[in-house]
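DM from R.C. (forwarded with permission)

"hey, sorry to bug you on a friday — could you get me a structure for this? deadline for the figure draft is monday and I only need the backbone to look sensible"
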Amino acid sequence: MNKQIEEAVKVLNNGGIIIFPTDTAFGIGCRIDNEEATARLFKIRNRPTNQPTPILVNGLEMVKEYADFVPEEVIQNLINPFWPGALTIVLKAKINKVPLLVRGGTETVGVRMPGQLAMLELIKSVGVPILGPSANFHGAPTPYDFSSLDPKLTSLVDYVIEGECSVKNTSTVVDCTKTPWEILRRGAIQVKI
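My reply, with the result:
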């Protein structure tokens, strides 16, 4: 494990907030099970509390711990072909496992497995999903390069992992709680519904 990831794991496990590169964009996150850190993250970003935040996982097994149910057709048509990668899937949340703030007051959760080994290693080492909104103040441009990070934002977090984003585009978001599924945001992955 590289030194930056090691340090980031320590910071997260001590209730801290980190900024990190993913395959899509730079994200800002904390452990899903630390409500104090989650509240601080929303405050730092000026994110409205009724706006859900995606969570980053290291695979299907972790999704099953936080999603109420993962339909077989979601696994076959979305997870198997596109994960790890730039696809966020919205599923019904396990209300007792996914905090209200993360859900934005809804009963759903957006999950994504980033296509980047260092991030997957970090999530595996922490043992729980980490929040994965983009590392910007609410309404500001999404940072795809280290140099695009707002110094005001980086000064408010506990650790910043340097690195590159390979895709440099937002993830596609598909709501699988509806029939038919609905594309909420078109991003790097072209999904046919």
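R.C.: lifesaver. Helices lie at 3-13, 35-45, 60-66, 72-82, 100-103, 117-126, 151-154.
me: no worries. The longest strand covers residues 87-92.
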